[in-house]
Amino acid sequence: MLLLMDTANIKEIKQSIEMYPIDGVTTNPSIIAKEKRDFIELLKEIRDIIGYDKMLHVQVISQKADEIVEEAKYINKEIGGNLYIKIPVIPEGIKAIKMLKGEIKTTATAVFTPQQALIAAKSGADFVAPYVNRLDNISANGIKVVSNIVKLINIYNFNTKVIAASFKNVEQIYGVCMAGAHAITVNYDMINQMIFHPMTDWSVLQFVKDWENFYGNKKIRT
Ligand SMILES: O=C[C@H](O)COP(=O)(O)O
């Protein structure tokens, strides 16, 4: 199971890498624009923080296959390392995924149906990224879509992995993990929510109280 951070915020990336078992970072144009920084400069800083081995997913802007390929090559040259180029599953995007196969790794993004994921996988995408919360928001079932994509990938034995994205609560995250998603990408709030439980905090406080009742402020290691 791969765990990625869906953010381009330097502080959030640094903190989550320090605290949690993070495999990489995913971005999209909206996430990047929020930081109000030079695109390449920001990505280079993220690469420096996470290192060359962790995954970095960066999305293209163009909507024509030839231009998508050019953007992918440019980002790859500038940023390098374990890089995945995110390409939306429009027809020209599928064409670009086919063109990049064997040269640059790709993540087919903005996936809303198993059919889109199937075509992207058949085209050679390394990852497909279904948007769970955006599906739930249009009264579809994000977890079911992820589950069906995982099933299709297994039926046809594609090498493609599912990176479930777009979460607004931990129940959605739990659901896609139970459905066998190979990877999840979550924002800073979600990663903290995943580990939070009021009973855990209460128990920790209780342990400390009981210890102090007998040992006072004595430490385990003096
Ligand atoms: O790149 C895709 C994002 O994970 C979408 O997430 P969002 O629906 O929270 O904007």
TrEMBL record:
<keyword id="KW-0808">Transferase</keyword>
<protein>
    <submittedName>
        <fullName>Transaldolase</fullName>
    </submittedName>
</protein>
<dbReference type="InterPro" id="IPR033919">
    <property type="entry name" value="TSA/FSA_arc/bac"/>
</dbReference>
<dbReference type="GO" id="GO:0005975">
    <property type="term" value="P:carbohydrate metabolic process"/>
</dbReference>
<dbReference type="InterPro" id="IPR018225">
    <property type="entry name" value="Transaldolase_AS"/>
</dbReference>
<dbReference type="GO" id="GO:0016740">
    <property type="term" value="F:transferase activity"/>
</dbReference>
<keyword id="KW-0963">Cytoplasm</keyword>
<dbReference type="InterPro" id="IPR013785">
    <property type="entry name" value="Aldolase_TIM"/>
</dbReference>
<keyword id="KW-0704">Schiff base</keyword>
<dbReference type="GO" id="GO:0005737">
    <property type="term" value="C:cytoplasm"/>
</dbReference>
<dbReference type="InterPro" id="IPR001585">
    <property type="entry name" value="TAL/FSA"/>
</dbReference>
<dbReference type="GO" id="GO:0016832">
    <property type="term" value="F:aldehyde-lyase activity"/>
</dbReference>
<dbReference type="Pfam" id="PF00923">
    <property type="entry name" value="TAL_FSA"/>
</dbReference>
